[in-house]
Amino acid sequence: MPYGNDDRERRERQRRDRERREHERRERQRRRDAGQVALEYLGFLPVLLVTAMAAVQLGLIAYTAQQAGTAARTGARSASLDEDYQQHCKAALSDWLADRTTCTAAYSGEEVTVTASVQIPSVVPGWTFDDAEKTATMPLDR
Description:
Layout: H1 2-80, H2 85-91, H3 95-98, E1 101-108, E2 111-118, E3 132-139
Antiparallel strand pairs: 1-2, 2-3
Helix pairs in contact: 1-2
């Protein structure tokens, strides 16, 4: 019976060798997959950055439009009281937007209309936008 034990031991060794080779093959495949994932992430990174910058830009556009409305209302209120509407118009804005703002007034009959035009800043070089322009009308209170 010694022959039977040798045969069993040989088969057991072969089985262990097959399992070891299979484990090594899976380990090589896992490392290769990890490298592929890193490359795919690097390829996707520019898309992710542009999307994030576009979202920030959209928020900046909305904020600038809101600030233009505030400036127009403040300017119209000041113009209706015969005060310096341009100074008040710019003072109503965030400091970093005030230098990019123009305010004009149009008097007609018993009311004044002030238009505030604020240049929309760009997060991405090369992206340009029209100005955010808002208008407010108030009755004259002189």
